[in-house]
Amino acid sequence: MIVSSRRISLPSPDVTARLATALAPKLGPGDAILLEGPIGSGKTHFARALIQARLSLDHAPHEDVPSPTFTLVQTYDTGKVEIWHADLYRLTHPDEVEELGLSQAFEQAICLVEWPDRLGNLVPDNALTLAFSQGDKSDERWLTVTGSPDWREKLDPVLAEIVHEHPS
Length: 168
Known about the structure:
Strand content: 25-35%
Number of domains: 1
């Protein structure tokens, strides 16, 4: 599989949310997004915006979207697709991922996974990786986007609309 990477500036939380909202309608069952970055880097903010946008798009009832830090997984049924939001920070071994049912969800749902390093060798081959890091200003984030050519087709129009691209 050919993988490409690019670095994007997200100057504010609003831009991060707009990116998530624009990406939401492009996703379907079997799409996995791996959200990397330190605590406070914007992973949960991105996931929350994407989930709320997809619920709205599919005319599902509005739901609060809490961080799954303590529950490990939160699921949402839009009526058209299931969304799994996992926070694996507290896991200590990839076997625990199997117990959560994530392997099956990777095939049947849209999956957003925070702390994907805990997946070990269970990382889906076709996953999109979004790595968040702190920018120079307090609200600014850098996003490194890594994925296959299939993801590029989904992302290019979204990124062209939303953010200013910077060379890596």
